[in-house]
């Protein structure tokens, strides 16, 4: 859903007049959900939104409500259409010329960043002020860590291929080491945020990271081209399965067809001498993927393919 599709359903409570008595009654009856103290949305419409669009709706609402503040970090990433590591309901704001309000006046969904933004690092997007893509990537990595930075930078490489990234580490600032590491780990080859997260975790692992990890390397088997999410040491394939893959409609195929195609592909790979492992979000974030990949690499079969 586009920004316009969401904001078209916003009600600016600051603009209500005495003539809006029906709308006021509906709000008082709880038929509208307050995204911010100033912006509301029909509750039924809000609850029908997918989780990521709910986060986007709240982010847009705070952006609309902020007179002098700027959406930054992950909140700016949401507006730019970039991937984020998970769904965080908190909205991140920063001021150009003033400090954050006292804690007693802060909304529970808002985090204020001392980002020291410059004027050229702020743009207007559909009436909402946000940090530029480059500044957003820097802030995501330094405020949320290396993995979150990799996810955002991978997304930016795909969405804005002409975007120069060499300036992300210019100057001196808090968290520059995390930004540098995120840049080094990013490839722009990941096809989903979960895949980006998994690849970064594999590379950062002290044991697994010593092996050759190649994302999205195409291999040809029996005339069929296959491009694994990650190929380790030329024989171990690590595939990442997002939940949307099996929802029956996002990828245009029924769930049974997706599973059947995966089984046929897995058999083809096994017959060619590859070992394939598949992991979902719980496996990745619960540590099972890393533990299983370590164990598999330690017990590499004698027939395993070797690099080259």
TrEMBL record:
The lineage's top-level taxon is Bacteria
Q: What is this protein called?
A: Transcriptional regulator, AbiEi antitoxin, Type IV TA system
């Amino acid at each position: 859903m586009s920004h316009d599709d969401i904001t078209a359903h916003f009600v600016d409570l600051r603009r209500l007049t005495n003539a809006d008595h029906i709308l006021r009654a509906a709000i008082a009856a709880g038929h509208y959900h307050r995204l911010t103290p100033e912006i509301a949305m029909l509750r039924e419409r809000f609850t029908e939104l997918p989780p990521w669009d709910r986060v986007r709706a709240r982010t847009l609402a705070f952006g609309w409500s902020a007179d002098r503040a700027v959406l930054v970090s992950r909140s700016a990433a949401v507006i730019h259409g970039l991937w984020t590591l998970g769904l965080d309901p908190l909205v991140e704001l920063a001021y150009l010329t003033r400090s954050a309000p006292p804690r007693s006046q802060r909304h529970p969904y808002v985090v204020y960043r001392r980002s020291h933004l410059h004027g050229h690092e702020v743009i207007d997007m559909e009436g909402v002020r946000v940090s530029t893509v480059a500044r957003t990537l820097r802030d995501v990595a330094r405020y949320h860590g290396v993995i979150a930075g990799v996810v955002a930078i991978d997304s930016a490489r795909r969405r804005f291929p002409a975007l120069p990234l060499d300036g992300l580490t210019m100057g001196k600032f808090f968290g520059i080491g995390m930004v540098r590491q995120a840049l080094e780990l990013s490839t722009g080859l990941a096809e989903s945020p979960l895949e980006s997260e998994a690849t970064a975790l594999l590379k950062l692992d002290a044991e697994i990271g010593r092996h050759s990890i190649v994302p999205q390397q195409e291999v040809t088997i029996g005339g069929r081209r296959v491009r694994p999410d990650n190929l380790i040491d030329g024989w171990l394939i690590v595939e990442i399965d997002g939940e949307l893959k099996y929802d029956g409609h996002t990828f245009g195929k029924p769930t049974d067809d997706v599973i059947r195609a995966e089984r046929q592909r897995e058999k083809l790979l096994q017959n060619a001498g590859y070992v394939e492992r598949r992991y979902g979000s719980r496996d990745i974030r619960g540590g099972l993927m890393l533990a299983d990949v370590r164990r598999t690499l330690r017990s590499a079969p004698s027939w395993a393919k070797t690099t080259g």
